[in-house]
Fold:
Amino acid sequence: MKKVEYLLTDGTHIELEYDENAPCRACGLPVVSASMGGTDLCPWCDCGKHRNGEPMTLAEFLDINLLRMKAKEIQNKLDALKGVKQNGKVNS
Ligand SMILES: [Zn+2]
Structure:
């Protein structure tokens, strides 16, 4: 569990606790960190980008299943790259 503090427009603060492993309401991947969109929207989706920095397309904004499929595909590639860095070799 993580905590985040939001500054409200009336100048007060609220502190929320959230599960960083809970699925993002847009991409479905673990939210990792709260964003300005809330504790259930990952920072990447909040900025309209995939986790590799690639901008989301209009088609992905309009079709959540397409967005989630692409997000998972990118995450799998990033995980594979992380494995290469940790093991020093490519898994075949
Ligand atoms: Zn997301």
Summary: The chain has a mean pLDDT of 94. The chain has one domain: 2-87.
